[in-house]
Amino acid sequence: xxxxxxxxxxxxxxxxxxxxxxxxxxxxxxxxxxxxxxxxxxxxxxxxxxxxxxxxxxxxxxxxxxxxxxxxxxxxxxxxxxxxxxxxxxxxxxxxxxxxxxxxxxxxxxxxxxxxxxxxxxxxxxxxxxxxxxxxxxxxxxxxxxxxxxxxxxxxxxxxxxxxxxxxxxxxxxxxxxxxxx
Length: 182
Hints:
This protein has helices spanning about 40-45, 70-75, 90-110, 115-120, 120-150, 160-165, and strands at about 10-20, 20-25, 25, 55-60, 65-70. By secondary structure, it is of the alpha+beta class. A hairpin with a 2-residue loop joins strand 2 (about 20-25) and strand 3.
């Protein structure tokens, strides 16, 4: 029996291209038995490869690595920025905040649609109440994320602070983080 699923994992990914070899509609390795015959596509016929396909290399928490086409990946995942240095519970809060932000935006778009206007007054009121609750939840979560980030993140090293470190003098931009103070 089949059913539907929704993903909730946090992954690491980076843009990458995939180069495929396709001859006569078959994925194949150059020189293999399937790679013989006539090809209508002149690019394939002359090079034996398809143009590079944009996508993402994906690394899962267990270390497994795969590749996804750009449109498939971007429909399934929201970018979180660089959060690998944060503890897992803070990573989950950041992810939850981004997912909630995405849902609020989608609900706002729906509220401006003809379909929304065609709903009963009760249904529109319920959706409006839901939107207000989602925004309140987003605000509460944002406060928690900002507090956690402040606890676990260090300020970026500025050029001025780096120069001060090299010179052995106090950091001008982040004096509280002086590595050279006596």
